[in-house]
Specification:
Mean pLDDT of chain A: 95
Oligomer: homodimer
Structural class of chain A: alpha/beta
Largest sheet of chain A: 6 strands, mixed
Shape of chain A: globular
Strand order of the largest sheet of chain A: 1-6-5-4-2-3
Largest interface: A-B, 49 and 49 residues
Helix content of chain A: 40-55%
Low-confidence stretches of chain A: none
Chain lengths: ~210, ~210
């Protein structure tokens, strides 16, 4: 087979990718205002399912952007998602990225309670005293715990990005979050991941960057 | 809607997930010996396409396991993949995980040459003096550079995990790597990602852990 490479300058690869995504989406209906997020998820996964499975609560994107501008911090359930989020872009607005999964006190609580570290890490995050966005890309148990903490009135997140991936309670945990009054961006069904969680955070950050340029 | 959660103990979630994956794969043909890798990619993505798109060069898994036992280090093209690889498990065999994407000298070379940092980071990796596994989950330009370095006889990787994701030269870069004599694990087509790159590394590490238990 003859392999041919397309000549694209390094600075143009992303724009060219988004052109291809936009073209292939054709007239697939997307909720107005959510397009940059949906397209970035497809960019990150090459999986057009995200054009259909992403669910946004009413005004979720506007509320998320406002939260970031207010200096919201982001809590993730994996070091991978933390590594993938553009921390410099977030820091410009005053926020930080937290992941408590590797913390000794979280491990200790998980062992004591017989729960997942993901659940214990949400309990730790609930003690943070700042506006919070949760970006859950791995553990449905984290999302279930967020649901409980929200329903008990112990936390009031500015946004929950609910995109755990997998086969055990993943679908159900997302449906639970969508029952709350908390703004959410959820990938309905089994799909998601740390990469998707990070990419939704970055899509939001880049929307602010671009609107700042205008 | 009534949401029902399945009761599964934290330590049993992964095993239950693999049960579901195995059941849903049914009699989908997989190359013998590659099943733990294919299933872990599906576990990481909830995307059964990986049962079809993963390509293994002859004996790739055995060669990869031997490389890890020999103390091979892993070079990735993203901090996310680095964050996702089980570094403790790798260190037991003597290897480390490297990602040079954020290094100032890599940024400087990329600027000077007008190339991607991914390409420059592969040039830096080529100077490492140890057995190497490359785990490329993001940048096709990294994979193309590896192809060139291999063809020029400047590197001789023990394995190339070629799973960049996306729309510009991703498909072609994978086909290029499959033309070399280097052992490879490639996700043919557009799909892949840092999460998939990390998960293939981990699947290999867990295969060694499990065989060590016997």
């Amino acid at each position: 087979m003859k392999v041919e490479l397309e000549k694209v300058l390094p600075g143009e690869i992303e724009a060219r990718s988004f052109e291809i995504i936009t073209k292939e989406l054709g007239d697939t209906p997307l909720v107005p205002g959510t397009e940059p997020i949906v397209k970035r998820c497809i960019h990150t996964s090459a999986d057009f399912d995200y054009a259909k499975n992403l669910c946004f609560s009413e005004g979720a994107v506007e509320k998320a952007l406002a939260a970031i501008k207010d200096g919201a911090s982001i809590v993730t359930d994996t070091q991978m998602a933390k590594a993938g989020i553009n921390k410099k872009a977030l820091e410009r607005f005053g926020g930080s990225v937290y992941c408590f999964m590797s913390d000794p006190d979280v491990a200790a609580q998980a062992k004591e309670e017989g729960c997942t570290r993901a659940k214990a890490s949400m309990d730790k995050a609930a003690k943070l005293d700042c506006p919070l966005i949760f970006a859950i890309g791995n553990a449905p148990t984290a999302l279930v715990r967020l649901y409980e903490l929200i329903e008990e009135g112990r936390i009031d997140p500015r946004l929950v990005i609910g995109v755990p991936v997998g086969f055990v309670n993943v679908v159900a945990s997302k449906e639970l979050i969508m029952e709350t009054q908390t703004p959410y961006i959820v990938a309905r069904g089994r799909k998601g991941g740390s990469n998707i969680a990070a990419c939704i955070c970055n899509a939001l950050l880049y929307m602010l960057k671009e609107s700042g340029r205008e």
